[in-house]
Amino acid sequence: MFSEFDKRYTHGRGFITRTINSCHTSSLPTPEDKEQAQQINQKDFLSLIVSILRSWNEPLYHLVTEVRGMQEAPEAILSKAVEIEEQTKRLLEGMELIVSQVHPETKENEIYPVWSGLPSLQMADEESRLSAYYNLLHCLRRDSHKIDNYLKLLKCRIIHNNNC
Amino acid sequence: QEKAANMKENVVSATVFTLLLFLNTCLLNGQLPPGKPEIFKCRSPNKETFTCWWRPGTDGGLPTNYSLTYHREGETLTHECPDYITGGPNSCHFGKQYTSMWRTYIMMVNATNQMGSSFSDELYVDVTYIVQPDPPLELTVEVKQPEDRKPYLWMKWSPPTLIDLKTGWFTLLYEIRLKPEKAAEWETHFAGQQTEFKILSLHPGQKYLVQVRCKPDHGYWSAWSPATFIQIPSDFIMNDTTVWISVAVLSAVICLIIVWAVALKGYSMVTCIFPPVPGPKIKGFDAHLLEKGKSEELLSALGCQDFPPTSDYEDLLVEYLEVDDSEDQHLMSVHSKEHPSQGMKPTYLDPDTDSGRGSCDSPSLLSEKCEEPQANPSTFYDPEVIEKPENPETTHTWDPQCISMEGKIPYFHAGGSKCSTWPLIQHNPRSSYHNITDVCELAVGPADAPATLLDEAGKDALKSSQTIKSREDGKAAQQREVESFHSKTDQDTPWLLPQEKTPFGSAKPLDYVEIHKVNKDGALSLLPKQRENSGQPEKPRAPENSKEYAKVSGVMDNNILVLVPDPHAKNVACFEESAKEAPPSLEQNQAEKDLANFTATPSKCRIQLGGLDYLDPACFTHSFH
């Protein structure tokens, strides 16, 4: 979806420079390499993943709404956004279930980073608006890679005992 | 002044000369600040380290130093490249401790020489998106020929080094390709995460090339591994071939046989496979009779049960009933309105069925139905009146059911009710009907009104009666009796006498009831028939002359109809001309007072004719008046 968007609207226009420090989930203490990931305990790791997923519920919802409301809504992007929103919800449900079963003592603190980028998605100035979408999709792409990698790490750690 | 100018000129030219000299010197040396370098590629083979390469700009002719500086997203510090060597010339290698995933690196290269320096553009790099592994290693290929199975080509490989698959940090997907040595195109197969593969379809005696490559779950494909050669032995038998050939030949032969058989016996086979859909069969229906036009015979053969379908019998409603329980019996068709002059219509008993065989041709049928005392009060208050039968030859069935008051009086459903709506108006030229309305009217209404009607009816009856043939069974006699019922006269004598009684002798007028509706239970709703002999083609609705009709309140066990006058004149049926108008409740008064007397009459009015009992409504009049 990101490459689709970039190819169509923002390619070669240097939007990437504005993505620095633009993700709302950067406040979470997520591991950034293999060693850090292996040092986190399982419980914290799971909670972290759940937090990331929770924090993306609202942005995805607004992304779908805003794209759908566009005049010439790009169908490919919209359909992917819808699918991602759906899959994220299901993934979150599954993760919460796992956490409740594996670590039932976990306190449901429900703390997660809040996204506040909706006003920028609705700005009148096209350049600013495009920049806002670019940032949102950039952060989404990154966080989905993160979650994918974390879950694969957990799978090999828990199920195959680090012997995938 | 000339000297000053000359001096100036000299200075200028000297300066220019010096500059030119200087520039020449420099150019000859090739010393320029370096051109702008460019970082053109960054790659990570394992998501734990990565390397970036740059392209130097134009050479300034002097030794140039390159340095790569970077800072990371979320940090303010600028770092320099930790390793210029591992990656080769013009490269920067970032080791494990310098590599972070999911974080943007902003880097640039600085080229410096004596003359100056130049900076490249900034490059934004996220290690997540620059992953490209090395090709897989140790590709081994061999031909395997197990005894009981087909031979195949078996290939194995191992993942490239330095990639951590065990912890799940890295996930690899593989792809193999092969081709005969001389072929132009490769045959590619995706192998997923497995590190081995089987190929089954091979050409014997050929030399094959095999290659494999890999890719991370998100990233770039690796390069193809070096080709491995394998020679397929010539005795690499494809065992299937012979089998398939024989199977093909056999199927062809079978197909030919089938085609031949079908050609010879096409139709019978088709009917065997696809049996023809049976057409509707009506018991007793003889299509030939239909063709001949003898509809009466046809219909008689069918019997008249459940015909016509009750749902639309309103459409089929006919005015008049024919009460006849034998095929041979036919009543005179009397249509006073249309043929007033024709007192007698030539009638002939059509030994065949009347379409309006209300009694369904069989006494038993009627008796069945007669035994059920129905309480179905409001089924036939249908204002839709039958149109005046213009065709005198209409068939009607008689359902002596008059509308009663509010269900207090049970209804009698004549057995032939269902037959009452024979639509075969056009088929049956000869029909007879009885207008019972007047009968009811006579029974219920004031003496005056029915009297007039009766007189007129009586005339009709007389006319009709003359033409009535003798009947064999009592049914006809019954009908006659009804026809010739005398409204007012004090006829204690049973009017409906089996056969010997000819109503014609008496001056009893006839009243007729029009059946205007038959409901599904066989209840007849009656309409008083309009007497045009009265001289008024369409009598205006007069409350006093409003038609009253009797409702059959019950059936005695001997199939006697017990008629009840209907006090509620809200039956539209009572009004011929305006079928749909709400009738005023006229007879109420009369009906109510008559009702009391009514119930006593049945026994006296019972007439037994050949298994069918009829009530002579005339009997009622005595009680009522």
Description:
The complex is a heterodimer of chains A (164) and B (625). In chain A, 65% of the residues lie in helices and 0% in strands. In chain A, helix 3 (42-68) packs antiparallel against helix 4 (75-102) and helix 3 (42-68) runs antiparallel to helix 6 (126-158). Chain A is an all-alpha fold and 164 residues long. Chain A has six helices and no strands. Chain B is α+β, with helices and mostly antiparallel strands and 625 residues long. Chain B contains 13 helices and 23 strands. Chain B has helices at 2-29, 240-264, 266-273, 287-292, 295-302, 313-316, 363-370, 437-444, 448-467, 474-483, 587-598, 602-605, 617-624; strands at 38-43, 50-55, 65-72, 79-80, 91-94, 104-112, 117-119, 123-126, 137-144, 152-158, 172-180, 187-192, 196-199, 207-216, 228-231, 373-374, 411-412, 513-518, 524-528, 550-555, 561-565, 606-609, 612-615. The longest helix of chain B has 28 residues, at 2-29. The radius of gyration of chain B is 57 Å and the shape is elongated. Classes of the chains: A mainly alpha (164), B alpha+beta (625). The interface between A and B is medium-sized, with 28 and 25 residues.
Gyration radius of chain B, in Å = 57 Å
State the shape of chain B.
elongated
> What is the straight-line distance between the termini of chain A?
30 Å
Tell me how many strands of chain A there are: 0
Low-pLDDT sequence parts of chain A: none
DSSP, total strands of chain B:
23
Global Rg of chain A: 17 Å
Stretches with pLDDT under 50, minimum 5 residues of chain B: 327-508, 531-546, 569-612
Task: Return the structural class of chain A.
Answer: mainly alpha
The helix content of chain A is: 55-70%
Give, in order, the helices and strands of chain A: HHHHHH
> Could you tell me which chain pair has the largest interface and how many residues each side has?
A-B, 28 and 25 residues
Mean pLDDT of chain B: 66
Describe the oligomeric state of these chains in a short phrase.
heterodimer
